[in-house]
Specification:
Layout (H helix, E strand, L loop, with lengths): L9 H14 L4 E4 L1 H5 L17 E5 L4 H10 L3 E2 L1 H7 L3 E6 L4 E7 L1 E3 L3 E3 L13 H8 L7 H13 L2 E2 L10 E2 H8 L3 H11 L2 H8 L2 H20 L4 H9 L21
Parallel strand pairs: 2-5, 8-9
Antiparallel strand pairs: 1-2, 3-4, 4-5, 6-7
Amino acid sequence: MTVVIPLADIEREASRLTSALGERGLDVRLIGGLAVAGHRHREIPAALRRTYGDIDLVINPRQGKGFKAAMVELGYTPNVRFNNMRGDKRMLFADQPNGRGLDVFVGGFQMCHGMDLSDRLDRHPVTLAPADLLLTKLQVVQINRKDLTDALTILLTHEVEPPDAPGVDDHVSSDRLIAVTSGDWGWYTTFTDNLARIPDFAAELLDAAEAEVVTARAIEVREALAAAPKSLKWRARKTVGRRVPWYELPDEIGGPIDARP
């Protein structure tokens, strides 16, 4: 039996992995920083370039068994105890030769806020759609520079347009952002809190012209979310406001979010 060793170059390994899993008929998409890297589409300023410590994936919840078998074939070691306990929502694997982890979200994303992704894997052939990536980056209550940098990269390299459907131009879908935040006041609050930090962060890292582009797009998103009709649940939760926590603070494997490479 041939022993498969994951590639040392993490971006090439992410490409190898998603291609191999797709060839096995598995619905798998990149999430996290490497997914943002896959959406750059152009040269980005040096201030936005960063390294990546691990690979994050989201998979079809109906394909867990086949996915686990494929990961072993592709050179990864499962965290058996964790996967047996929580594998319906999340799985962990290790790339032991390169000292890297691989985090798998099963059908959805759950950190400070939750998001069902089971019907979102057809929006892009390799990664989540840009709007979904922006949501995952700006849902962190205790947000760090890494996540702000990725959010900034998405807004710099993508226009904001309404359509949210497979096969449309690669853009940040304002319809998708509205769909998630107009039904949940907590989602809306965390997302818009972090979105409000983008203009100052853009001014810090980008030249004036690029910072102006990002700021305009952030304002466009903010105005679209504010103007969208809100659900009864959203309005009821707004009356409570910030007096009661509107988020969870997840304990990640190996330490808090800021401790991850």
